[in-house]
Amino acid sequence: MLKKIKTGKTEAEIIVSFDVTRNNNAYHFLKENGLVDDDICMIRRLISLDGKNRYYINGRPSNLNLVRELSALLATLHTQHENQLLLNTKGQTMVIDAYAQTLDILEKISACVDAWKKNHAKRQERQQNGQGIPQRLDYLQYQQKELQSADLNLEEILSLPATHKALVAAIETLQYYNHALDAFSSHESTGILDALKHLQHTIAAIEKISGETELSTLLNEALVQLNELHRTIRYRSHQLHPDTEALERVEKRISVLHQLARKHQVTPEELPNVLHNIDQEIQSLTTNETTLLALNSERLIIESEYQQLTKELSEKRKKAATALATHVTQRIQQLGMSTAQFTIQFNKRSPEIISNDGAENPEFLLQANPGHPPALLKKAASGGELARVSLALQVILASYINIPTLILDEIDVGVDGKIAAMIGKELRQLGKTHQVICITHQAHIAAAANQHFTIEKKTSDDLTEITVTERPINERVIEIARMLGGLTITDNALEHAKEMLK
Q1: Rounded-to-integer distance, Cα 55 and Cα 59, Å
Q2: Which 8-state DSSP code applies to residue 412?
Q3: 51, 41 contact by CB (below 8 A)
């Protein structure tokens, strides 16, 4: 991995892309995180002079944790100082479970753990609710009684404004009708009709002098219309019977509802729901102890089921671990570690811990040399030994673990040509199901590959460049011969290289 920025530049950029067409785990991870871009997964890293890193997945900004999670589904990296799969508990557990085919049990355990967590959350809530229950119940029951006495009915509450408006409108309408009738005939002053009758006498006097009848005609027509208007108003006023008592009851009801609504900081329409919630809480509090007892019983059942499942898982893992350790030992001995012994042991977790991974942690141990006790793999194995253990596991688990890209570095440290040829054979076999990228100085390992790239460092003036170049078949022969013969490439080395590539 590039660690430094080229002199004179402000940042470095690293891009790697994967085809996830057949990598269901990676594809689903991208989909769940909204990062799907066809069948390609492109990870981009920008390193700045200030030491800050920026990460992008399919062009979208991402954080380091997300990149790490995704990377674990795309590639396994094995170097002399780093082995993602073998040097941590999670990776070792994954290896054991893949070989033991424990997916069905793990799914049941996961469901069991989820049920336990939900039960635990409910129990905590009940226990917290149990504090101050009597005081809370007294307060809620007082509110309940007050709201129940109001006889809340949503349909009635919604209809009150319209009812009130109609009652007020009836009273106001009758008042206006009476005002209108008073205008026609008033005991205190001359009404409209009386005034018109007086006007009629005046016009008659005018027409007697002038001999015209037009004014009388117009006045008579107006009198007919006014008389009709008078009769209509009087009739309608007699049809109205405003209920002032009903209006008083409605206004009192509205006042009560508004007082309650202000008290509970809601609208009147929400009062029935407030009462419903109070009823629910009272019921919940009064049944809290019963519910807590039921939850405790449920917890015991879940924990019993969990213990049974983890016991079954443990038995399956241990049986598989014995077979896997024997298989790995055989392979690493064939890879030049002739006296090494690979073993697997399990450490029990605290009984209070409930985990999706079961009740124990596996540990990979290696006895690299006779006379020394087995030790943790990360402490006992050198870089080359660790890489060969990893290779053995990868070949064994090729059909179990869906991590399609394997990157190996320093796998050929401390091995001779015979062992290197064996390693090359294993890598070629693994390459049928995985993408295997191997950095090697051994001709026997390089010759087993389907593609070859040379890595070269060139320095000119103050500039250093590292290039990676794919080699065609004729150049592959020369490179293999160079690895065999050193500085001078002989005809024998070329012939040997051709034979090896066949």
Answers
A1: 9
A2: T
A3: no
Supply φ then ψ for residue 268, to 5 degrees.
-55, -35
CA distance 50 to 63: 18
Cα distances (Å, whole numbers) of residue 467 to 252, 436, 460? 91, 20, 14
CA distance 406 to 427: 10
For every residue of 435-496, DSSP letters joined together read EEEEE-S-HHHHTT-SS-EEEEEEEETTEEEEEEEE--HHHHHHHHHHHHHTTS--HHHHHH
Cα–Cα nearest to 100, from 374, 358, 386, 376: 358
What mean pLDDT do residues 439-453 have?
Answer: 90
Q: What is the reported pTM?
A: 0.52
pLDDT tens digit sequence for 368-420: 888 888 998 878 877 667 778 877 887 788 767 667 788 887 677 666 777 78
Of 487, 498, 351, 333, the C-alpha closest to 422 is: 333
Q: What is the pLDDT of residues 260-305, one digit of tens each?
A: 888 889 998 888 898 899 888 888 777 777 788 889 999 999 999 9
Enumerate residues 6+ apart whose C-beta is below 8 A from 247.
164, 167, 168, 171
DSSP secondary structure letter of residue 83:
B
Q: Give the whole-angstrom CA distance, residue 156 versus residue 208.
A: 68
Two structure tokens written together for 382: 């050198």
Angle at 268 between CA 265 and CA 270, to 5 degrees: 75
CB neighbour class for 501 (10 Å; exposed up to 12, middle 13-18, buried from 19) = middle
State the Cα–Cα distance between residues 309 and 296, nearest whole angstrom.
20
CA 136 to chain centre: 36
**First CA to last CA distance, the chain:** 33
Q: Which residues, in sequence order, are CB contacts of 9 under 8 Å at separation 6+? A: none
**What is the 3-class SS of 150-190, one letter each residue?**
CCCCHHHHHHHHHHHHHHHHHHHHHHHHHHHHHHHCCCCCC
Find tokens 């295997």 and name the residue.
Answer: 436
